Amino acid sequence: MSGVGKGxxxxxxxxxxxxxxxxxxxxxxxxxAATYSADDPYxxxxxxxxxxxxxxxxxxxxxxxxxxGMGFGFVEAxxxxxxxxxxxxxxxxxxxxxxxxxxxxxxxxxxxxxVLVVEGYRQLLADDFAGVADATAATxxxxxxxxxxxxxxxxxxxxFDSDPVLFTAEMGGVRQ
Length: 176
Hints:
mainly beta, five-stranded antiparallel sheet, 1 helix, globular
């Protein structure tokens, strides 16, 4: 767990991967965030944010999006502003899903993939998905609001074998 002083304020999740080889279908990964109510933190998400959406209150936004990877470092980014988030929300789970439109792909099939979670200059997580190489989607981070209202970070790299739509329904389930 991490939370210094008054807890997390503004966090950025960054994603990178290399483009597909010439002649192969594009590799497309997405950052996905699911927000859960304070009353039911392991129930259904109140809302889900991905590349085609943002949170209703503007506290979770995609600031960069890529459909091909580009190979130029972190090309996709999501910003989460916990210091502005309503007290109605008590948990946010962030994950990464691989689009399966070019045939089945796992993280082991994606070269130079990586995720970075930072708050300002402080690195909270860096992962290359090697631990979930056989998965098609993975959670990477869990943010919980404690009883005093402070947001805390928990590393949660856990693989799933599902497409992006199904992943949004399962990603915030109770840990095994």
